[in-house]
């Protein structure tokens, strides 16, 4: 395997990364490629991802290419011909986003779908090849500044021994329940009433789906259903997402969430209003596990102090609608490594300054992705007249690739441009949408205004 050529700007800089998900592994790779001395600690006994497929838009593929592993990722995954949005009730295709030549020219990289474990393994192997040390089965108990550096307390879970490690900088890539995020803000996850079922099955053996070369997204009232190939077309990945009536009821009434929310009974009921093409796929889903869709409020500062920062889901866990959570973590990694390497090149490596610059560049962008993700999800799930208007807008967006107009801000990101540092207002919602209010915020506002559960409007 070959990775990008290593450089030496960060030689002698000791960096500890907490968390070995896609974010932490990408961070280890980007920094080791700039010559840093990186040690990553992962709590679990092995590097492992839960779930199956990931969509990596061109904004993510560009990061993989910078690190020299874009082609390998493409070989491990699948490059779809297009993405088709279909109305979940009629199965009509309302928008086809073609990923051919014009797309490549416009965005400068492919749209990739890849198995989570394949991407994580590739990042872990590449980071190791670049010289990073990735350690499993070690839990980071804390990290505090200590003079000109940071002291990290690490527990070896195999023998319960505890050691102190010194570093110049610590990056908390420790996921949505991050220990280090808590040092900035003591917030809670924002639960949506949506739940995801996932499943993979053999694609060539599937009479209805064999030969699939697209990402298909059926969108409909209170639900959606995604399908795409993985592993060069060997596997079919499917994700079924729906609003849990039991969870919604407890959210609206402010009562305790019943244990049976999102269970198999609800799953079976959730798609009865959708087209047969979706209903007949339910039997291919895993029934023993389901995932609640939650995010957190955007955070406008990711810096704990001059030596500690959070990135990845620790800083910006999104709802999954823009398929960009893992991509944002990869962009964070490249921006961090780039800004630090350039400062070192100029002979001005001041870690506090680098951390603040990373946060100022990244927080507005990721905040916008989190907020637009919520909006995009609501648009997918509308009913009644809104559904017909949405469908017509999607049809219009397909004419002459007009949809580029909506996707450019997301997929045309270049870390070297420092665009959000120069103009943080790029993180705002586009003109005309500034007044849009997330459903759950609307609920909260009405409740605070004294509305009774029976009067609440979503
Ligand atoms: C249904 C669904 C579909 C999605 N689809 C997409 C998609 O198509 N495209 C996309 O880009 N994103 C997608 N995402 C989002 C994406 O999966 C996440 O944003 C991304 O994986 C986050 O990576 P991370 O490394 O920041 O966090 P995590 O994957 O949560 O990794 C954090 C790691 O830190 C470890 N850890 C935590 N605390 C400690 C500690 N104290 N010491 C040591 N280790 C610790 C944990 O064990 C864990 O391994 C999706 C998410 C969901 C739920």
UniProtKB/TrEMBL annotation:
Naturally occurring in which organism (per UniProt): Corynebacterium yudongzhengii
SUPFAM superfamilies in the record: FAD-linked reductases, C-terminal domain, FAD/NAD(P)-binding domain
Cofactor(s) needed for function: FAD
Protein's name in the database: 3-hydroxybenzoate 6-hydroxylase
GO MF terms held by the record: FAD binding; monooxygenase activity
Pfam name, any one: FAD_binding_3
This protein's UniProt keywords: FAD, Flavoprotein, Monooxygenase, Oxidoreductase
Residues annotated as domain FAD-binding: 15-333
Top-level division of the source organism's lineage: Bacteria
Secreted listed as a keyword: no
